[in-house]
Each structure stands twice: as structure tokens, then as C-alpha cells.
Amino acid sequence: MKKIESVRNINTDRISSIIMLIIVGTFASQLIGRTFTQYGILFPKVILTILVALSIGLLIKSWVAPELREISKEENKIKIVVGIVIMIIWIWTISLLGFLTSSIIWFAVLGFYISERKNLSSFLFIISAVFCMTILFWFIFHKILLVPFPRGIFV
Amino acid sequence: MGGKNHPFSHREGKMDGNIYITALTNLLNIKILILIFLGAAGGMVAGALPGITATMSVALLIPFTFTMDPIAGLVTLGAIYCGAIYGGCFSAILINTPGTPSSIGTCFDGFPMAKQGRAEEAIAGATTASVVGGIFGTFVLLFLSPFLADQALKFGPPEYFWLGIFGLTIIASLTAKSIIKGLIGGMFGVLLSTIGIAPIGGDVRFSFGQPALQGGVSLIPALIGFFCIPEVLNMIGTAHKITQRIPLSKKRKGVFLSTAAKVLKMPVTLLRSMIIGVIVGIIPGAGGNIANLVAYNETVRASKHPEKFGTGMLEGVVSTESANNAEVEGSLVPLLTLGIPGAPPAAVLFGALMLHGLRPGPELFAVHTTFVYTFIISLFFANIMMLFIGIFGGRMMARAISATPVKLLAPFIVFLCIIGSYAIRNQMLDVVTMFGLGLAGYGLKKLGFHPGPIVLGIILGPIIEEGFVQSLLIGKAWTIPWTIFFVNPISVILIILCILSASWPFVSPKIEKIRDNLAKARRMKRSES
């Protein structure tokens, strides 16, 4: 396993302020060309104005007294990205395969992926643990608490 | 249950000196005691599962009480309510995910304690604080109900507005390192809370063309996403470094007793947090989610070492847990005396009372006196049983989570997150929202944003907006509408509290400096003399 130990400092204040200004812009664009009642839109406008002022304040601070943070330290970014992709597929396949089936598959895949030892015994351990946990919780929520989990091709 | 063993039907309406004895006699019934035990244990398990809130726990279990008599049914639901609020501390401490919104503050110091191998100590502290808080709240409910309920009714829209703003000032304590980022996070949370239909006017705002967003951002998926997903991603990214997320607690004899003794040696923290919990509980609309954060904020402000909070301070766990359990009984004060629920789970209890043919309000005390006092005193029993359940169950849970390797724990948390966010409204959109906000939370965390202010903004946003807009509408009758925010005595008190709370992180270091200088000067004088 390749260890990522590099440490890089970035100006988080500047990045944060720019991201916030983009978010505010995106929200503000929703107000253009639409009519609202006076009291329906007053409060969001106040909040957007405050957010713009604070973001500009943070942008100015990023030059005057910037906060520098170590962005990567002892963290395996590839694992994080692959983990995110597995979780996205997990959520996406719930409606296709059914809640229980997709949970058993992707729970096991994620567990096996982050496991250090990738051998048969580790695989069998993960599969058996995943099977027991998912079935137990599915039974509690679906059969006792009557939560109607999505069904797909399977359960 | 019925006939001779039906305490409600035989003893209602008697208000004399023996009312407490009669209520106790009703409770000292093996069937009732078993129901209280099962209710507290069941509530605790439900509360420990992220996404299953106290409100949901009580609501889900109401049907099981249909066939019981009113006392047995309501006593069980009361125990579930107490247990669920307490149970939230387990997941907050062990996996950094508040089981209920009432345990958000418990994550701040509880999880760092667990990471240091002090999970059992954190759970013991939370258990003791919860039990003490619950018993204190029950005393208040028993003796001060009518007076306190009257005071709570004096809160109008301007007072709610200032109460919300006061809640937001907590950000200053949560993010002392970068207050501007804390404020941006809080405002971002408030902005997220404005998505959906406006409370006044009915306009659809920021739906981005998605009909599903008209209902707004659901609190629980947001809460789970912001707190849980960043932690899972952190686990995945560092899985090659660590095999266990939480180190196994060292086997220490008497850890519960020694921690309980430590907690009881914090009477000021306990009392302050419990009073905050009761007051916030009594105010209709403000629940344990606000109580625990306000109590945490005040504990940090009052501490001589505020910088140590967030690193594993037992005092932080004690403040939040004593406040949220005292809030349970606080929320029952307006419910029982005025028929106005103080918090969402109390609103569900309102429904349960109605189902059993009991109308909450003054009539309840006048006509069904024995029932009311039996119910109130049952909360003592529920809290005491919580202590025993917590001692044994807490240790088991801590050991189980500690022994679980990261390769199982991380995907298991994702699995719980999906269940928790889906079960709220049975909508896949909530799961997507949870995950999307979780990813956003991870990115924001990397940029130095704390999830606390964002979640606080989402919780307080609707309270502030409603207070703000309703006040302005009422203020239309005034020459200058804005003055409505500043004229009522309660508003003035809240404004002063807001100013004090917001300015405290800036003022307290200066006060400390002056104190140090004075002490130095005194020492110099002494050495000279």
C-alpha cells in the first residue's frame, strides 16, 4: 500500500469565500425573474445579504491574515474517492435491486475494499458479518417497525 | 388491564394530601414497573439508532399502548421518551453521530473521549448526568408546573426571534478559532432551512425546479449527513493506519462509580444545564436540540479552560446530557398544564393522551389528578431504571463498538445512515440529501468549517424566520414596525443575553489577562514587602 504522507498548505479562507460566493450566487439566481410575496422572500434576502458580506470579509481576510491548513496528511485520497463512488452506487441501486440486496452487496464490497487483508478468510468474515447485520436491521425496521423499504428486482 | 387493577378508573379526581401516596401505590405494581423498564430500554435502543428520534420512537410505539389502560399506556410512553433522549448519547459518543438531535452537543466532547479510549467513562458521565437531569426535571414538573407554564405563554413572535438569535450566538463558542467561518456556516445552515415553502406567504423558494425540494431540507437527513458521512470518509481514508476506530477501553474497576462521583462534583455545571434544559423545554417549539447546545455553550463560557472543550472534556458531555434529559420533563409542563406541547415528542404524547380520552390542559389536573401525578412520578422510576440499563447496556455497547474493525464499522455506519434518513419520510430523496450534504460537510470540514454551526442554522432557521416575519406583521400596527423587537421586557433580557453570549469569546481572554496582571501585581507587592 502506497502511503501518502505529503503535506501541502492551502489558503482555506480564499477557497471557502469563493465557494460561498458561488453558493450565494446560485441561490440568488433562483430569485431572478420570479415574483414573491413581500414576507415570503424578505428573510432569505436578509440571509443572502449577510452571507455575501461575511464571504467578502473572509476574502479580505485571506489576504490580510490567511488561515493555512494542511490539506493532505496521512490520508489515502484514492480510497476516499473510490469509497464515495461505492456509496453512490449503493444508494443508486437501492431502487433497482431492492434495499436488502443492494445493502448486502455494497456493504460487503465497501468493507472488503477498505480491508487491509484481501484474502478468502477476510472475505468470508466480512460476508457473514454483513449478512447477519443487514438481515437483523432489515427485520427490525421492515417487519417490526413497518418501514416500507424500496423494492427493485429483488427485496 | 381493567377492573380492580385499573388504578385510573378507581382513583381519579381525588386531590388530597395523600395524592403522592396514591400515585406511588399505582406505580408499585409489577406490571407497571415492567412496562416502565421495557419502555426505557426500548426507547434507549431506538434513541441510539441514528435517524430514529425520540418523536419517532414514541409515535411508533403508540399503537402498542392502545389496548392498555391510560396509566399503563402513558407511563410506558413517558419511559420511552426519557429512554430515547438518553439513548442518543451512545451513538454520539461511539460513532460521532447524534442518535437524536438532542445529542448534537454530546458529539463535541464525547467522541474525542471515545477516541482516547475513554468511551466507558463518557457513557458513565452521560448516564449519570441524564439521570440527574431527568430527576431534576421531574421535580420541577411535579412542583412548579402551573407557574412555569404561565411564564412560557408570555413568549410571542419577537421573543421567539430573539430566542433563535440567542441560539445562534452559540456559534461563537463552537468556533472560537475562526468565528467568521462559524458565522458563515451558521448562515449557510439558515439559508438551507429557507428551502421550500415560506412559513408566511406560502412562496416556494430555492426549489431549483425540483418538486421534491418544496418540502424543504429535512433536519434528520441533514444532521446524519453533516456529522456522519465526513467521519466515515475519514475512516476510509485512514483505514490503512488504524484497524479500530475507537480504542478498547482499558479495563478499569469501578469506572462507573468513579465517573458518577466526578459528575456529582460538578454541581454548578449540572444545575446550570438542568435549568437551561427545563426552561428551553417549557418554551413551546424549542426542544432538546436547542437545550443541549445552549447548555454546552454556557458551560464553555463559564469554564476557566474553554480552549479544552472539544478535546474530550467530561464536563461537556455532562452539560449536554443533563440539559436534554431535564428538557424532557420541561416539555411536559405546558403539555399537562395548558395542553400545549413543549417539544415534538410531547406533541405525540398529546395525541396519545387524546386517544385515551384525556384532554391535556387545566382540566387534566382538576379532573384526573391521580392520573397526572401517577404519570409524573413514573418519570422518577423511568430515570432510575435508565441508570441500571445504562450501566450494563452502555458498557456492552462501548465494548461492541470498540471491538468492531473499521472495515465493518465504516460500511455499517453508512448502512445506518441510509436506514435512518430513509425511515423519516420513506423517501429516497432524503437518502440522497443526506449523502449530498454529507459530502458537502466533508469538503467544508477540510476547509475549516465545523458541522455544528451549519446544523444549528438548519434547526434555528425556521424559528428565527417565523419570529422575524410574524413580528413584522404585528408591527405593522405600530408607527415604526421594527420597534416591536425591542419593547417587551423578555425581548430586552434576551437581547442582553445575545450580546453577552456573542461577545464572550472576545471579552473573556481580556478578563483573564486583567486577572493575571492583577495576580502578578499582588505577588510582586507581596515579594517586595
TrEMBL record, chain A:
Transmembrane found in the keyword field: yes
InterPro entries xrefs: DUF1468
Alphabetic keyword roster: Membrane, Transmembrane, Transmembrane helix
Keyword Membrane: yes
UniProt-recorded name of the protein: DUF1468 domain-containing protein
Residue stretches making up the DUF1468 domain: 15-150
Record-annotated membrane-spanning stretches: 12-33, 39-60, 81-114, 120-141
